[in-house]
Specification:
26% strand, Glycosyltransferase, alpha+beta
Length: 762
Amino acid sequence: MSRPADPECALEPTVEPAWVLAVDGFDPLRENVLESRLTVSNGFLGVRATRTVGRGERWVLPPRTYVAGLFDIQSPEQPIPVLVPAADWMKVRILLSGRPLVRHPAEVSSYRASLDMRRGALVTKGWVRGPLLAVRVRTLRLVSLSDRALGFQLVEFEIEEGQVEVTLEASLEGTSLGLRLERLEENLGVWRTKYSGKGLAIAGATSLLIDGQELAPGRPGAFLWSWTWKTHPGQVMRFERLVAVARSDTKESDPGEVARSKLAHAQQIGWRAVLAEHEAAWSTGWQVGDIEVAGDPAAQQALRFAIYHLISAANPNDERVSIGARGLTGSDYNGHVFWDTEIYLLPFYTLTWPEAARALLMYRFHTLAGARAKAAGMGWRGAMYAWESADTGAETTPDHVIGPDGRIIPVLCGKQEQHITADVAYAVWQYWQATRDESFLLEAGAEIMLETGRFWSSRAQPEADNHCHIRGVIGPDEYHENIDDNAFTNVMARWNIRRALDVAALLRGRWPEHWENLSSRLQLDDTELNQWRTVAETILTGFDPKTGLYEEFAGYFALEPINLAAYAGRTVPMDLVLGRERTQRCQVVKQADVVALLALLPEEFPGDSAALNFDYYEPRCGHGSSLSPGLHGVAAARLGYTKKALYYLQRGAAVDLSDTHVTIAGGLHVAALGGIWQTAVLGFAGLSLREGGISLDPKLPADWRSLRFGVQWRNRRLTIRIEQDKQLFEAILEAGDPMTILASGKRHELRPGQRTVSRINS
């Protein structure tokens, strides 16, 4: 993809509508929802889609720029770290005789915002017609995917009517939203978080051109620029702003020099080069990450929207941050990291962008000390990951929240939702299977696997029935707390222990010196490894071979059954409909639990038990979480329930693309977006990882004429296309050594550049 880097092209979105999400008009009730939906981000910086022009004296909504890893506690009395918003660097005002041209966005006569997903940019177009001036305004904003420190803003004003004196002001906004100002200079601001001591610097440079001639600012100040001139019809003004942002994690380091250096480089090459490099980086991301669907425009848009935000959320250059539940699109959940990252997001990164996957997993390695401390604090060995994590790996889940009825509700997830430890191990193992990244395994992955295996081996306790039990937990179904032997938790724990034993054997056999050093440092000997095997062999899973069903947890089958069809018209979660106490006494499931196990470990469901468990638990699920549709979609698609799987893909897409979900105001549901990708690739394409290659078992929805996507596997890059009508699959090995691919049970040898075509189910 190549576009001329000139203002006229820059200010117009990509021509192909499948790459653009456009919104027309102004609706104050939707404004904060659209700010999340149209966010531009690069994994380091996230800028919500607040309007550049037309805010008047005050913002309609607070501006928000987020910087990954910029955490601070609110006060010693509230020691929960939160993601602190940075100063917004895009404020522009036009003043006529000291009064704003627009005092409220609704005064803009027409307005269109277009999220250009191909280029990773937000472009807008609007007209303002007042008594003294009629202006067409076009804007572009982006944060660079090539150099993540950089942000760029381009605003063009074309005068249609009016000859008046105009002042344009450009400044920072929201400089006191939780940061302490250290210094503010002409083009540099430096702040420090109040308690954690993290530093933030923003360096900026602006210019204003009137009919192609640069106009010097009249009274430059500390991060304030102002120009005054006389307008005339046909006049074109172009405002350009480059910023560079730097974060420091220690009190001693000064991020100001880093920001200045980054800005100086951007000024040297010019904004056109910054834009070109940014677009080239996006082109590279789409080369493997894109999915093409023929026959279903809604699904195509949903997938492109999901992939756009997944690419936007990750930063392969920073191993000290991960992706919060809302990415950098909003402040809900305080920017904290959950199991969402490993279970719902890592499959996309592992199979399309392994560099990003590696960085996200290294974050878990760097927070291993916090996981060890949590395990020790609760009386267990090894490492137990925090349910909510910020920058250190310490548990950041609040002890209580205020319920919808005003009552204080204790939050037990931080102590009882322990399956996240196995979820992290699952992502580590999947990455190892897909990449064979030996340096990662030796540097970090093996230690994570061993310490999480050690945790479960101490957590699962033997009892008089000769089984090991895990009591007092919360599974993915958060409607039921303090339960015993949750099937998801126990099976994932057993799987974790067994893979930890596999890692120990692998290290011992291939890297004996490394094994000696690591096992000595961890004080891990054969006696303990044998104890792990015993736990794995005797842990109770809840599976009944007679019925083929897993019991979600001990006693679940005896709970009150609820017919969810009777509540089909509800607009709130089932725990609000039934009340918290009754919900805990009935079989309503909040989100995929046993179904989640089916999606992650299908090999744990022998014979026809996969269908039996899906058919049993799917009608009992109230989908009280945005995470639920994704894994339901994967499981349904693999079972051949393509209509149902498509329904779940659509339901997952509606979470962030439908205006019915008011929670989008606090940021997008990134895990739901990952679930959309998984439903298409792991579900409909039936992709899974095998020891010797990739396996496909396609089952496309009836209206999907074809599905095309890219994946990476062990330093190889593939493009796969599945045709519905002709029942064909096509694979091209774009780069890397020859490999084997399994399609509908048939093996195919792939060679670089060679197109392999075969019939599905032949």
